[in-house]
């Protein structure tokens, strides 16, 4: 055997994996690193998915709460509309007679005079 060739093979074996600009990892080591990075990335994605799932659940609860509140408000508005309608009907009946109009004019005049005096003395 050629000692020079043996030395060259030894040097190649010694510096196997070293390339210009750095060290090249062996394929099995590189595969392990890739798997580890993939596992970390999957854990990160799982955490994000769980966070989004909780957020969407919270949003759903909030929307349901607002829908219930809006339904209650709608029912209250309907009830108020009914009461106001009844009041307006009674008010119309009062103004249909002449004596009621005179009474309203008298009461309204009294209220206006009272307010004017109140603000002038203040």
UniProtKB/TrEMBL annotation:
Keyword Phosphoprotein: no
Topology in the lipid bilayer: Single-pass type IV membrane protein
Bilayer-spanning residue ranges: 103-121
GO BP annotation list: protein transport; vesicle-mediated transport
UniProt keywords, alphabetically: Coiled coil, Endoplasmic reticulum, ER-Golgi transport, Golgi apparatus, Membrane, Protein transport, Transmembrane, Transmembrane helix, Transport
Protein transport keyword on record: yes
Record InterPro entries: BET1_SNARE, T_SNARE_dom
Family the UniProt entry places it in: Belongs to the BET1 family.
Listed name of the protein: BET1P/SFT1P-like protein 14A, modified transport to the vacuole 15
Species annotation: Hibiscus trionum (Flower of an hour)
